[in-house]
Structure to design on (535 residues):
């Protein structure tokens, strides 16, 4: 089963040469290639070409996945047919003699000697001669070159395929136009010493390898943090020896992703107290929503929050902005207990008036436009009510807020209520009244899910529908029909302190079939339609 299932990978790579790399014109097809590569993996044994400075490694277990899919041969044949645009009844027959062992492929990310990022696909070989014959059969005009013990094929700008007697590597990069640096990296990876191989250099990676799952992803946060994208979030924080593991399992009617974040000594020292061990549930219970579109809660340690602000050089800036209000950041942190809850009750489209001022005549025009509007409630726990009362007194004197009977109003649109050491903010008059009336959440299942965790979030069945109707940025995904869901859940715990354990679960309405089948049947036409538009 493994050989025929995975032969699609090489077929795709070789088609790039024939079709002038049209496969890689869209980011979506990068994703498709990654998914295909990942879905072909099995027990991890082929690791010798993965360098110790790899930024990520992806693996999967096709045996486990295949056993969960009824009529898996038809399913996989359809999958390859969709990607290749080939409606053959057997897309694998021509791949039986490729010489490739498809049981253990990996994808990983690395950097060349010129510090340019690349993505790699690695597979072990059973017969290099069979592989070369297969390549020439696919394209008789293709040129196979050789330097020392490595044979290779240049597949256009930023793409190279190379192999030794034992291993096959495909390297690709969107930033590299000259293939020479990729060729040098290809030779280096094929000849790594044990000390330069990730499997020998990283204890954390060995731990990752021992965990069984359908699919897995290992992230080296220290290496990823060298890139500008992550630095925008981390502000160049020291993430040495920080790693993240993702383990995905496809089950009947749901996808489960277990996530483990391992913090290095520097991170532990500074942020060990960022989260409390669990949400108490007091505030969650007090939210007057039984079926919120989204409910999110977390429990922060204010000591950890202050440390984070100091490290991001925001502490003094925030303190300065609070000075006119007569309070300090230290007092604000002492006022709050760190537990926060956010509930979204509705998203809808409303017609609003928009004022436009003519640049030359200064005349004011009023236009009507449809805009998304959300009804929400945000609640935080109050530890020190004395600081809160002094702060509100300052706000009232400055005119920033107005007292309206039993609550306060910001800018005529945001209501604020303090009761039983909980501070509520809402833009909904209906939710405001429910809070004042002391109404509580009656959804016991949701309350139970939120409790005993450091943080949790649930999006209910109508979340994607509401979002699709309201949010402009979803229009780009309007043609894609996602499988109907019961809910989407994410939660994490920090009881260990040395690692954060999290779990992400998607529960589909179709609980009779495996989630992988549900996903493919729902998305295959839309993905291919989108892919063909990008060509």
């Amino acid at each position: 089963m493994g050989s025929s299932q995975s032969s699609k990978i090489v077929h795709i790579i070789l088609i790039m040469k024939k079709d002038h790399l049209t496969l890689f014109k869209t980011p979506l097809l990068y994703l498709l290639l990654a998914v295909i590569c990942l879905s072909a993996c099995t027990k991890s044994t082929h690791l010798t070409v993965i360098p110790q400075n790899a930024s990520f490694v992806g693996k999967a277990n096709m045996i486990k996945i295949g056993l969960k899919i009824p009529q898996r041969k038809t399913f996989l044949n359809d999958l390859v047919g969709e990607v290749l645009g080939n409606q053959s009844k057997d897309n694998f027959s021509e791949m039986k003699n490729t010489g490739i062992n498809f049981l253990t492929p990996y994808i990983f990310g690395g950097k060349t000697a010129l510090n340019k990022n690349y993505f790699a696909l690695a597979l072990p070989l059973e017969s290099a001669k069979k592989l070369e014959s297969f390549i020439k059969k696919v394209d008789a005009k293709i040129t196979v070159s050789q330097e020392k013990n490595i044979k290779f094929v240049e597949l256009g700008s930023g793409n190279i395929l190379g192999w030794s007697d034992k291993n096959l590597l495909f390297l690709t990069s969107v930033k590299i136009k000259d293939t020479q640096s990729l060729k040098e990296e290809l030779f280096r990876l094929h000849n790594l010493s044990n000390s330069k191989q990730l499997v020998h250099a990283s204890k954390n990676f060995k731990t990752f390898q021992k965990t069984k799952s359908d699919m897995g992803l290992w992230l080296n946060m220290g290496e990823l943090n060298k890139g500008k994208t992550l630095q925008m979030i981390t502000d160049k924080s020291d993430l040495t020896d920080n790693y993240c593991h993702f383990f995905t399992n496809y089950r009947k009617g749901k996808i489960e992703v277990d996530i483990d974040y391992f913090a290095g000594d520097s991170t532990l020292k500074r942020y060990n107290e960022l989260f409390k061990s669990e949400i108490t549930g007091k505030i969650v219970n007090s939210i007057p929503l039984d079926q919120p579109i989204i409910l999110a809660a977390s429990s922060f340690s204010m000591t950890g929050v202050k440390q984070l602000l100091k490290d991001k050089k925001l502490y003094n800036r925030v303190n300065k902005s609070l000075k006119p209000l007569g309070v300090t950041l230290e007092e604000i942190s002492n006022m709050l207990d760190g537990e926060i809850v956010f509930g979204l009750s509705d998203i809808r489209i409303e017609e609003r008036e928009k004022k436009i001022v003519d640049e030359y005549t200064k005349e004011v025009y009023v236009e009507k436009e449809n805009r998304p509007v959300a009804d929400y409630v945000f609640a935080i726990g109050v530890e020190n009510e004395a600081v809160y009362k002094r702060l509100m007194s300052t706000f009232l004197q400055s005119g920033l807020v107005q007292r309206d009977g039993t609550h306060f109003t910001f800018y005529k649109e945001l209501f604020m209520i303090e009761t039983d050491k909980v501070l509520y903010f809402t833009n909904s008059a209906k939710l405001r009244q429910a809070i004042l009336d002391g109404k509580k959440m009656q959804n016991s299942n949701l309350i139970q899910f939120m409790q005993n965790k450091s943080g949790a979030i649930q999006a209910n069945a109508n979340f994607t529908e509401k979002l699709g109707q309201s949010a402009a940025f979803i229009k780009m995904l309007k043609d894609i029909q996602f499988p109907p869901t019961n809910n989407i859940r994410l939660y994490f715990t920090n009881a260990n302190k040395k690692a954060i354990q999290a779990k992400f679960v998607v529960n589909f309405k179709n609980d009779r079939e495996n989630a992988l089948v549900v996903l493919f049947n729902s998305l295959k036409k839309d993905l291919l339609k989108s892919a063909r538009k990008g060509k």
In short: The two ends are 32 Å apart (CA to CA). DSSP finds 21 helices and 20 strands in the chain. The longest helix spans residues 515-533. The CA atoms of residues 117 and 227 lie 9 Å apart.
